[in-house]
Amino acid sequence: MISYCHVLGCTDRSDWEKKHLEYYRLTKVKEKSAKTCLRNKRRLWLAKLNQDFQGRNLDNIRVCSYHFRSGR
Predict the structure, then answer these.
(1) Is the separation of the CB atoms in 60 and 49 below 8 Å?
(2) pLDDT at 42
(3) How far apart are CA 44 and CA 33, in angstroms?
């Protein structure tokens, strides 16, 4: 399966030549055991992406390692 980076303006995909990049999912929060810190972390990720994900499956959202200071 091909992973796409969902940061606006980023065109990185897992099937291109940039094999050194890794793709990270959003923090997952289970409703029954949702902790405030995880819920806030996921909310911040979505805010930073600055896109409308209403009605989309958030499990498929990825961000490539290029957008992290440490690469992770």
Answers:
(1) no
(2) 82
(3) 19
Q: How many domains does the chain have?
A: 1
By three-state DSSP, how is residue 66 classified?
Answer: helix
DSSP category for residue 19 = T
Helix (H) or strand (E) holding 24: strand 23-25
The DSSP-derived string for 26-50 is PPP--STT--HHHHHHHHHHHHHHT
Q: Which residues pair with 23 in a beta bridge?
A: 64
Q: What's the domain range around 39?
A: 1-72
User: Please, which residues bridge with residue 13 across strands?
Assistant: 4
Give dist(CA 18, CA 71) in Å, integer.
Answer: 14
The partner residues of 62 in beta bridges, in order of sequence, read 25
Is the pLDDT confidence value at 32 over 70? no
